[in-house]
Structures are given as C-alpha cells and as structure tokens.
Amino acid sequence: MKSLIAVITALFMVMFLIGFTSALVTLKPAEINEPYLILQTCSGAGYINISVSNLEGLVLTNKEMINNGSVWYYNFTPDTIGRHDVSYISDGCEMSGASYFDVTGNGKNNPDGVIVVLFSICFLITMGFLVYSLILSIGHFASLDLDVVDLSKSVGVFFALLGFYELSRFYLGNPVLEDWLLLFIKIGGFTHIIIPLTGFLISITVGSLRKKKIDFGVRRILRRQKI
Fold this sequence. Notes:
Elements: H1 2-23, E1 25-26, E2 30-31, E3 36-41, E4 48-54, E5 57-64, E6 66-68, E7 71-76, E8 82-90, E9 96-104, H2 113-143, H3 148-171, H4 175-226
Helix pairs in contact: 2-3, 2-4, 3-4
C-alpha cells in the first residue's frame, strides 16, 4: 500500500513538473549590458508586477510594468550572462505566470557544440600563424632583407585575426574570448604592422646603400683597370 501511494505521489509530481515547465514561456535572448524589453500581453489588467532572478539571486523585485494599451513592458538591462527567470503577478488575465530568457554576449541563442569546436580549431590555427609570422618577420628584420612579400604575409595574418574577432562576436558572443582577441589585436598591431613595416623600410634603405656601395666599388675597379 505504501509503495502504491509513493508511485501515485511520484506520478503527480512528474505531471506537476511537466505542466510547470510547459507553462514557462521562452522569451527571445537578450544582449548583456544592452536595454531589453520584457513584454507581457494583457488587455484586462490594472497592473502587472514582475520579479527577475538569475543564478546569483533576485535582480528585480516586484517592479511595476508600464502599460501601452494591451501590451505591458519593462525596460531591463542585464549585466550577467545566463538564464533569467521572470515571474509576474496581475489583477487580470492569468493572475500569475512565469517566463525566462537567456542573456548572451551578442543577443543571439547560444551556438551549437559544432560551432564552438570549429571556432576553437580556427582560434588555434590563427594563433599558430601569428606566432609563425612574427618569428619570420624578426628573422628577416635581423638579416635586413625583409621584403614586400614578408610584409604582406604579416599584415594578412593580422587582418585574418580581425576577421576572426568579428566572426566570433557574431556567432559566439563569448565576452572572455572577445577580451583575449582584443588583447591579441592590440599586441598584433605592434608585432605584425609596426615591426614588419619598420623592418621593411630599413631593409630597403640598407639595401639601397649596399647596392650603391657595390656599384661604386665596381666603378673604381673599372677605372683602375683603364689606368
């Protein structure tokens, strides 16, 4: 008998959880640190008060929404990435309800695992090319033979890093990765633009001086032979 009661209780709990989960309305994602309108449609309500919570606790408590005809809204600016649950109490329509929305870095749904893996591989490849082109530029700079091809390679890798940063912002919206990429872009502006350009200009100048010196030496030899 006790086992039967336990089974029935468990079934009721499962049904309750399923019903509660299905009652939750999924709102569109929000972008971190950007204004986000929480909307509720209810023409017969005299007031709607909402509360918002995330993993850190309550963010808003019993805040009154603004009425605009049949649509109620509250302007909310999230400062934490992750799921935010919204509950509301009203004197009209349904007396209470719940919904939730995800806060992401770019205001889009979280990417699939395949996209994350793909971007991780591209990130490693981009970092590898950055290091390789830097070593190559330093070697040619030291030899004073850094030519336009070497300069183009270095600048090309830097612009590839800029492109990867923009794609990551659009598809991933990961603030940590974006901060690292911005740091690499700042460093890359010096290591892949300024250093190669300086080496290229010095190589051209020294190369011209060497060529003039060789030409002058040949002329002196020819003069001596004529004498």
